[in-house]
From TrEMBL:
Keywords on record: Flavoprotein, Oxidoreductase
Gene3D superfamilies: Acyl-CoA dehydrogenase/oxidase, N-terminal domain (1.10.540.10), Butyryl-CoA Dehydrogenase, subunit A, domain 2 (2.40.110.10), Butyryl-CoA Dehydrogenase, subunit A, domain 3 (1.20.140.10)
Acyl-CoA oxidase/dehydrogenase middle domain span: 116-204
Phylogenetic lineage: Bacteria, Bacillati, Actinomycetota, Actinomycetes, Streptosporangiales
Acyl-CoA dehydrogenase/oxidase N-terminal domain: residues covered: 11-75
Name of the protein: Acyl-CoA/acyl-ACP dehydrogenase
Location of the Acyl-CoA dehydrogenase C-terminal domain: 237-358
Taxonomic source organism: Microbispora hainanensis
Keyword hit for DNA damage: no
Length: 379
């Protein structure tokens, strides 16, 4: 990919400003597109690289090291295009082709809008309140979505909704930005990942052509296009985002300990065994995460269904290690680490957001425990 190191350095140099102002990093996606990152998971026949999860995870980790808000939007975009490229993808071919073509022409970001104020995350069940009402040749969409990650920069929105049929269909309806019938309400004012601009979107009769009901099925059936492979991509790439944060925190810590020379010591903190051992523990956590992400990604690329089923444990472990690493860095540094003049404070706020992504820790651990206990879990 052309000039990626330079692009990442630029993204990192602007991360503090975007975090402080809480605005979206439009220029980061222009630069990532120019470098070829946004074509990474597009199929070769559509002008992309056709990359697998292992290569993609390495790139997302590097972007997360520069700015995790940019990395999260990038990860969700790349996994969507990876799903589009699969031969079993249910989208109409001409709709899929149009979305893929737009991604080659410019930074045409795409993401799923699934969460609602009353329902919470759809991964925990229930019907969406957002309704796609049938009209001739299409639908009218009404409802409110929250935590719409990257919404200022999205070209395409995959809106999770139900039809108004007596026996509703549930799934994703593709909405192209700029078509009217919806508005964005600036609600995102979170502790971390501030530049994702994960605001609310209120749909007020947005028109959707009939062929843009791209992933729908009767209520109660598994959602099409979101099987084990998709969840494997999701788990690995979410882990990669926060692994990148932990790497950035480690890099800052090493530089700080090498430069910080208290007057009563007369030499840098990096020379003290206590600090050396603590940094060594951080290195151990990061090494485990490196190997977990690499092995989980390659297993997904190889079609290992058993490993895909365990990918949630990889995400849980990697994000936990990332949080531990940044917390350990803060404990070593003390007050300077919590100063907004230093990036460690931002890394800490960002890494804590690793706990909230689907599947969440309780779901992952309960599922893993039930699988390990087998019939004993149901006696």
């Amino acid at each position: 990919m052309t000039g990626l190191d330079e692009v990442l350095a630029g993204i990192a140099s602007r991360a503090e400003r975007h975090d402080r102002e809480g605005d979206f990093a439009f220029e980061a996606f222009e630069d990532l597109h120019a470098a070829g990152v946004l074509a990474l998971t597009l199929p070769r026949e559509a002008g992309g690289r056709g990359a697998g999860l292992a290569e993609t995870a390495a790139v997302v980790t590097a972007v997360g090291r520069a700015d995790p808000s940019v990395a999260l939007v990038t990860a969700q975009y790349l996994m969507t295009h990876a799903a589009l490229a699969r031969p079993d993808n249910p989208w109409p071919a001409h709709v899929r082709g149009r979305v893929q073509k737009s991604a080659i022409e410019g930074p045409a970001l795409v993401n799923a809008l699934r969460v609602e104020p009353d329902l919470g995350t759809p991964a925990r069940g229930g019907l969406p309140a957002t309704v796609a009402a049938r009209e001739d040749c299409g639908y009218r969409l009404t409802g409110r979505k929250t935590y719409c990650t990257g919404i200022p920069g999205l070209r395409w929105m995959l809106v999770w909704a139900r039809t108004d049929d007596p026996e509703p269909l549930v799934g994703s309806f593709l909405v192209e930005a700029g078509g009217g019938g919806y508005r964005v309400e600036r609600t995102w004012d979170h502790l971390g990942m501030r530049a994702t601009r994960s605001d609310d979107v209120i749909f007020e009769g947005a028109w959707i052509p009939g062929d843009h009901a791209v992933e729908v099925a009767p209520a109660g059936m598994p959602p099409t296009g979101r099987g084990a492979t998709f969840m494997g991509w999701n788990n690995v790439l979410i882990g990669a985002v926060y692994h990148g944060v932990a790497q950035a925190a480690r890099d800052w810590l090493i530089e700080y300990l090498g430069e910080r020379t208290p007057a009563n010591l007369g030499r840098p903190l990096a020379t003290l065994p206590r600090f050396q051992a603590a940094v060594g523990e951080i290195e151990a956590w990061l090494l485990v995460s490196d190997r977990l992400l690499e092995s989980a990604a390659r297993a997904v690329d190889d079609g290992d269904e058993a490993a895909m089923a365990r990918s949630g444990l990889a995400k849980h472990t990697v994000t936990g290690n990332a949080i531990r690493s940044v917390e350990a860095a803060l404990a070593l540094v003390g007050n300077p680490g919590l100063s907004r003049a230093n990036p460690l404070e931002r890394h800490y706020r960002d890494v804590l957001c690793g706990r909230i992504h689907t599947p969440q820790d309780d779901t992952v651990l309960t599922g893993a425990g039930v699988a390990a206990l087998g019939p004993r879990a149901h006696s």
